[in-house]
Design goal:
By secondary structure, the chain is mainly beta. Helices cover 9% and strands 48% of the residues.
Length: 322
């Protein structure tokens, strides 16, 4: 067994006991693959799609994949599995959370704190077509707290659409530094022609924002391309549905518990109330042409702390190659 494989397995072994709800915006999983080394994709989540306005209320990511990003110095810290084809990217991500009563200026004791985070993410995807597996890694640097301008964004959107104005952002999680590393492994288990595929996946992350891990499976059905084939050519048109159930183990969540370095948040959820095991289901539909990408997705998750209910949200993703 080569040294890199040993290191990879050691990292997963060390992280799994802690943990991992996967990240909210997972753009590196195989069913979201874009067959190009050059593309841009806009990822947008909002609980409006699930007729709600609480919990994970909004998130977006501006994602770039470019060959020149191979020169990114951050890539030197990532594992480089042998006999793999690599692609390099960067993304700007922003996520926001609110309690059920987001209008009141009072602290909503027993409900989720207001929180937002903004991060610059460097990432790498390694694909091995012989083993039919993918390893993705990312390092995110950013801020959680008022400096992430979650208040300004949500208030501005609500004013623009004539909705109720949020009033509790002064009670949000305090400013703190975000440094998060994530690694995920995905293996194709079965494929029937270009109509059905089944994959297993495992992910873990460690950092000041989220420390957690997840295991799941994902299926795709329809007119498929093959994200585990590095010799493939661009497909003219594909359309498929997917489902992605996961079980998660939670170590730390700064959007609930506050930052690790700055412990002066006005209101947080006590660690004893955090649900250490959750489950979520993501499903949707993807349409791709030779140059365009479109996706509609829905997600539901079991409660994340003792006094919360389950939550739902949806999203759209639009991309293009160049």
């Amino acid at each position: 067994m080569d040294m890199q494989k040993r290191i990879f397995e050691l990292i997963l072994f060390l992280l799994l006991p802690f943990s991992a709800m996967c990240q909210k915006i997972d753009h590196m999983v195989s069913f979201r693959d874009i067959q190009s080394e050059r593309y841009f994709r806009f990822n947008y989540d909002n609980d409006f799609f699930a007729a709600a306005d609480k919990n994970y209320t909004q998130g977006y990511a501006l994602e770039f994949m470019l060959p020149i990003l191979e020169r990114n110095p951050v890539n030197y810290i990532f594992l480089k599995p042998k006999n793999s084809v690599f692609r390099y990217g960067m993304a700007l991500e922003h996520i926001g959370y609110t309690p059920n009563d987001y209008v009141s200026a009072a602290i909503q004791v027993g409900d989720r704190p207001f929180a937002s985070a903004i991060m610059l993410k460097s990432f790498i995807i390694a694909v091995n077509d012989e083993r039919k597996d993918r390893i993705s890694q990312s390092l995110s640097l950013g801020l959680i707290g008022p400096s992430a301008f979650g208040k300004e964004m949500q208030v501005g959107i609500h004013r623009a659409i004539g909705d109720k104005i949020p009033g509790g952002w002064d009670n949000q999680i305090a400013n703190d530094f975000v440094l998060n590393y994530r690694i995920a492994y995905e293996k194709q288990l079965y494929r029937f022609r270009n109509t059905f595929a089944l994959q297993a996946d495992i992910a873990a992350q460690l950092g000041t924002l989220f420390t957690n891990a997840s295991v799941g499976v994902n299926t795709t059905m329809g007119l498929l391309d093959n994200p585990f084939d590095t010799a493939r050519g661009k497909t003219n048109f594909v359309i498929y549905a997917y489902a992605h159930p996961m079980v998660n183990s939670i170590g730390y969540d700064a959007t609930l518990q506050g930052g690790l370095l700055n412990t002066r948040s006005i209101y947080t959820i006590n660690g004893n109330a955090i649900e250490r095991f959750t489950a979520n289901l993501e499903y949707g539909i993807v349409i791709k042409t030779r140059t365009l990408y479109f996706e509609y997705t829905r997600t539901s998750i079991t409660r994340e702390y003792a006094t919360e209910n389950s939550a739902k949200w949806g999203g759209v993703k639009i991309g293009f190659t160049f």
